[in-house]
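Ticket #4471: structure output looks truncated?

Reporter: J.K.
Steps to reproduce: submitted the chain below (427 residues) through the standard prediction queue, then opened the result file.
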Amino acid sequence: MKPQNLWQALAHPGFLVSPWPWRSLAYLVTTVPVGLACMVALVVLAGVGAMTVPVVIGVALLAGVVLLGIPVGVLERRRLWLLGPGRLAGRHRTPDRAGPLGWSLTRIREPATWRELIYVLLLCGLLWPLDLVLVAVSAIGSVLAIGAPLWTHVMPDLAFRIDRWVLADRHTAWATVPVGVGLTALALYGLALVAGAQGALARYLLAATPDEARDAELAEMARSRGALFEAFEAERRRIERDLHDGAQQRLVALTMELGEARLGTPPDAPASPPLDRAQEHAFQALSELRELILNIHPKVLNDHGLGPALADIADRCTVPIDLATDLPRRPPPAVESAAYFAVSEALTNVDRHSGADRAEVTCRLIGDTLILRVTDNGTGGAHPASGTGLAGLADRLAAVNGTLSLSSPPGGPTVLRMEIPCKRPVS
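Returned output as attached by the reporter:
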């Protein structure tokens, strides 16, 4: 089986004839310029920042010292490709607020940033000098031992003394070649072990574990889905506003003008029946438009919040509803919209499928969680697979990271509980 990383390659008998010794050597060699550049940047930022602390730029430079590990972490995670396949993910999360200030505040508060700074300090103070010494000593020793016949030929008067053994002629020089080859092989194994240890340290400090990477990917997917949902809800509110302030007002004006024309027309005039029908059609169109606007996004939800909007739903439901709300503050618009339409769908199910003669709706904001509960005294037996819209309701809640739980034994009662995270707005 072909080795997939450096540790597997070290255990493989063909390590020395594989690319892995050279990949590990390349990792150690490239550590030197990266470490030197980091050391220079660290000294400059810290020094100039300390001297200019009374000025705003000094604080920014000192903050740059803390944030220096972020670009270094990106580079180091890419360099770890030399020791194993795959692109490694970092431990950072999406900033809470947009803009440079929001990004910087989020990064400074993250443990991942401080782990990367620790790595930078280790890189500057220990890793690159160690790699430089090890690679230089190994290279010089291998070149001198394996190239001994060449040195004695080029510089015959030059003698090397190893303990009591003097290397001064070609015969003794050729004897050092196999020794040099063996020492070079040992050096390659040793350098690979050092590279593997440094790579493990870099992975521990800079790279997310598979579980963390998966959780971060899921969180990013949830964040993107939430952002799309918020954009969708904003567009719904825009369409509702345009219809309410535009088309609806024109239909209202049309019905009024038709009414005036009808009043000014004698009942037995030929134009009277068509005017009656036109006014009736206008009333029907206005009624349908109002229903459409309500389904797109209710105006009461925008103007007065979730509590009055739920009261409006309860008033329009044919089943008597007991409503209790406790909302010390308004949730975000996306959460309000999701909660409104979830309760609306739940009450539609109560009205059409439950056979209940009474239902109860509670809505409470406890901490950072909005809890909705819909209970009815119907026949029970509700199930998401039964086609009553519960699956779509669950999808709607999932778009805002909400959860749905259902208890509906045969004979009832049916209890639908919905929870939606409701973070406080960032000030």
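Triage note (M.O.): checked the attachment and the full token line is present. The mean pLDDT is 80.
Status: closed, working as intended.
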